[in-house]
Amino acid sequence: TNTATVTVQSGTLRFDRATHWANGCVFNGPGNVLLNTTVTSAGTPVLNTAVEIVGGTVIGTFDINGPFPLIWSGGTISGRLTVKVGGLLQLTGNGTKMLTSDDNTNPAAITNLGLVVWTNSSYLYLRYGAQIVNQATWRLEGDGDPFYYDMGDVPGFDNQGTFLKASGSGLTSLGYVSFTNTATVTVQSGTLRFDR
What is the Cα–Cα distance from 68 to 74, expressed in whole angstroms? Predict the structure, then answer.
């Protein structure tokens, strides 16, 4: 359980056993923190160094506001993640990433008020009606399909901000998510195709 400060002055600290993060707990660097376990979160940690979800499951309400990014390269978010103003969520790597509660009546969700960047990553699996609400900037760097749906109710992406395909000369397809747009979609490079 972390109710205060974890500092990694050198190298990498990896959590492989279930842990609990209290609201306001602090992670300091300059070293890195890897999460490969079940994390129960109850609020907003302060990320003063890079924290990366590489496996396991994040449960509960989880807010991030930086100043360093939360990196998601593998594992599951089963609760509700809010990227606050000034926060950064990076989806990267080839590991399996899932946004799912396994419960259609209480879907997992991401609300973005800051910046989310998907960089030539594997799919983000959206299961059991998972919901994404983008009120700021959701940026795609590269080609391919950023989302995949294979279980439960159809997931939704509600764009109330800027959905940006920033790079990649090829095709990005949105065929696995119900996409609602009430704001801005920008394609700076390549092609964005809506298939649902």
Answer: 18
